[in-house]
Every structure is written in C-alpha cells, then in structure tokens.
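Final report, Chapter 2: Outcomes

The project's central promise was a pipeline that accepts a single protein chain and returns its three-dimensional structure in a standardized token representation, suitable for archiving and comparison. That pipeline is now operational. To close this chapter, we reproduce one record exactly as it appears in the project archive, with the input sequence first and the structure output second.
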Amino acid sequence: MAKPVIVTCAPTGGIHTPTMSPHLPVTPAEIATASIEAAEAGAAIIHLHARDPETGRPDPRPELFAEFMPLIAGATDAVLNVSTGGGLGMTREERLRAAVATSPEMASLNVGSLNFGIFPMVEKYSQWKHDWEPEFLEMTRDFVFKNTFADLEYIVKELGHGHGTRFEFECYDLGHLYNLAWLIDQGWVEPPFFVQMVFGVLGGAGADLDNLLHMHTVADKLFGDDYEWSVLAAGRYQMPFATQAAMLGGNLRVGMEDSLYIGPGELAATNAGQVRKIRGIVESLGHTLATPTQARKRLALKGTDHVTF
C-alpha cells in the first residue's frame, strides 16, 4: 500500500503581489482564514509567510506571525511551517526572525543560491495597487537569492539545534540536492529529511517531467530510505506536477504562493479550493491524504507542546 500523501498548502508566499489577484491573503485575519480552510480541506502542513496588512508587501515581523499562528493552531491540528525564505531582498537575519520567535515544528530552508527571476510578470499588468509592486518584481532582473554554505550552516544550527525545528528542504535545482547531502555529511541534520523539489521558477529547474524524474532518481541515490519527498511547481504547472508526484508515490504542495489559478484563466477564489481539487485527483488515483498526526510521525516533528506561539 502506498503511504498517504502529505499535502502542504502555502496560502500567500512572498512572490505574488496584490494586483495579481483580489483573493491573495494579505492581512493576518485573511492568512488565518485561508490556512484554517486549507487544513479543513485536507492539508496536513501549512507553509506560512506574512505580509504588511496595509500594502501586501512581504514582511518578516514576528508580531504579524503572532497574529495568525495562534488562530490557526487553535482551530486546526495542522503542522505550521514557517518560511525562512521570507521575501526576496530580505537579509538572512530578517528571514529568520519569525521562525526564531515562534520555534515552530517545521521551517523551510532553501538549500542553495539561485537567480530568482519574477521580473517577467511586470509585463502582464499596466496598473498597480501599490507602487512597490513593479519595483519589487523588476529588481529580480539583477538579483541572486542568496543561500550560501555559511547561510545553511547558520540556519540549521540556529533553528535545528537551537529550537528542535525540522526542515522542509527546498531544492530548486539538481545541485541543491548535493548541497543537502553535504549538510548531512557534516552531521548537522538527521533523518528523516523532507525534500521539497521546486520546478518552474525562472533561474531554477524547469517544469519538465524529465527534470522531476531525474531529481527523484538522484535523491533516491543520495538519501535512500531516509527521506520523504514532495513536489511543487509554479503557475500552470502546479496541478500537473502535484499529480505526477502523487502518481510516483511522493507528496505535494499547492497554494497561492505557487499559483494564483485553479484552472486555465480562472483565478483561485481560495486556497482551500486548490487543496480540494488536488485531493479529488489524489483520491481518484486510489491514494489517501495524510493527517497532521501521520505527517508528524513520518517527519519526526517535535510536536505542538514545544513551540512558542
């Protein structure tokens, strides 16, 4: 029997901007509602970013996370996963602020530097809700999302050793799998490893099925039975790649961080709608969705008694 599929939902992220969709959660209340609805729809893990409630700009302030994380935890049993990717252009210390303050069960960790290009989206819009949006997108034309070996060491020791937080290792390219293998070789992280393979970001691995299959093959060689793998893909590739992951026995991620759409040309009204859609696909394939309890056991998380929110 295949293991139940762990579904992660990333309800807002730090990439899309308010002009792109009226449904993108921005305020703490909107993020809380979107997360709770996604968990009720079947997501076992909620991957969290915060935004300035006035402008919608990605915001690292722990006090914003403190407004929605207790609400989500009070209403659901979902695993709350705090981003350390933050928003493009934030310093390492800014990106870590919320995770250090909340000591979550899980945090994301981008396992390598890359050119992270979202500037092509500028061409799709002629009017903007906020002045910061086109500037934010355009600056990525000359931007490197920095995740050096020094950064990786600092984060796994600060959060992993200091807080007992385990990681969603985000791998945007083949070399990132080898970066993770290096961290393992140093003895700084222990299994089971949760490897999130990311496709379709300009600067990372393209959303090509051959890339997914090859990265999965390499991950098997590097990590053997010591890891759980998951897949996310940007934009129109979200649902097809999530489906492929389920068919191959993996886990998957959906949410408005990765795609604002529920179908061709149709904006998603809610994150829960994306979760329900992939749930229907997964169950039609004969699989079941993992509960938060099952996800915690498989990922060896520390449990909700050891967080600070």
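Archive annotation: The chain is about 40% helix and 15% strand.
This record, like all others produced under the grant, will remain available to the consortium after the project formally closes.
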